[in-house]
Amino acid sequence: MIGGVRRLHVQDSVHAAGNPEGVVVAQFGREQPLRGVLVGDRAEEPLDALFDEATFSSAAMFGEATFSGDALFDGASGLEMRALCKVPDGSTVVSAERTIQISPPHNEQDRQAGDLLIGSQQGTLLALLGSDAPQLSDGNAALDRLIATHPDHPLAVYALMVKGTNAGRHFQTLGKNGLSVRPADTATSIEQLGAVVETTLDPGTDAGVDNITLNETMRSLARAHARAHDLKQADAVLDQMVETFREKHVPPPVLATIAEQAETTRTQLHDQA
Per DSSP, what are the bridge partners of residue 64? Predict the structure, then answer.
């Protein structure tokens, strides 16, 4: 990217715990700072939570920066990021900087898949884990095209995660004719979320979601099986989730939290059956 004015779209995930006012500030080289919105799960616990417990959450940053002059982006440059969290006493906690490498598309398929995933509406859908809102129809159409035209591309798992999570819940629309309800499509939810989990756990590929998103997706998949009146399979997914992270050798406090999440979800599903 040389000369003129170019727009750089950045999508990346950070892992942090804090309150909803947290933001991520990113800087491309020494040019212009990019301030993105932090979206996703945020811990509700105070920052002085018990130290022997694991506190973590997942968030995604969507933002845009404009560069002018002779800014050069050749794929070798990095995006320096840091997380800022405002704590209850008014002070700000700043994380260490993390450099994110931004690779150019390797081929035309990469470019096409990236274009279908990156966009303001797609970003909102990722933040909400899906929506039927008509204001997001273009974003949903782009995710559908990504799944249909590039089903084996690594970026397709994110579209499947969004669409599968949204399919697994009903959606209410209030219009001039009153309230309409789109019922949950449990079969589609199981198929799409199952594909996300299968791809992520496949040792033969580097594609897939991060650990925190995998945790959330597997619990959503278990809920979908429960809605299909298959508690046995729901239990199997929750057992697989705990075993998966045990094999990943996550720290004991993290594994304990994951096991507790699995049992809490299991109890809720059985109580609701």
Answer: 9
d(CA 204, CA 226): 30
Token digits of residue 105: 């598309």
Q: CA 260, 203, 247 angle in degrees (round to 5)?
A: 30
Give CA angle at 37 (33, 39), nearest 5°: 145
CA distance 93 to 22: 9
Rounded Cα distance, 35 and 110, in Å: 26
Whether 10 has a pLDDT exceeding 90, the answer reads no
**What six digits make up the tokens of 69?**
């002059």
Task: Specify whether the CB–CB gap between 140 and 125 falls below 8 A.
Answer: yes
Residue 59 has a pLDDT of 55
Residues 224, 260, 37, 153, CA torsion sign: negative
Location of structure tokens 């033969």 = 204
Q: How does pLDDT run across 70-91, given as a tens digit for each residue? A: 444 445 556 677 767 777 788 8
Strand segments, DSSP code E, in 16-54 are 23-28, 33-40
H-assigned helices in the chain: 108-117, 120-128, 137-149, 156-167, 186-201, 211-227, 231-247, 252-272
Question: Other C-beta atoms within 10 Å of 205: how many?
Answer: 12
Q: What is the pTM of this model?
A: 0.72
Question: Which two tokens mark 94?
Answer: 């700043």
> How many CB atoms are closer than 10 A to CB 243?
11
Torsion of CA 70, 71, 76, 78, to 10 degrees: 160
Query: Looking at the DSSP assignment, which residues form a beta bridge with residue 78?
Result: 101
Which residues neighbour 23 within 8 Å (Cβ) at sequence distance 6 or greater?
35, 36, 37, 38, 83, 84
Cα gap 272→229, rounded to integer Å: 10
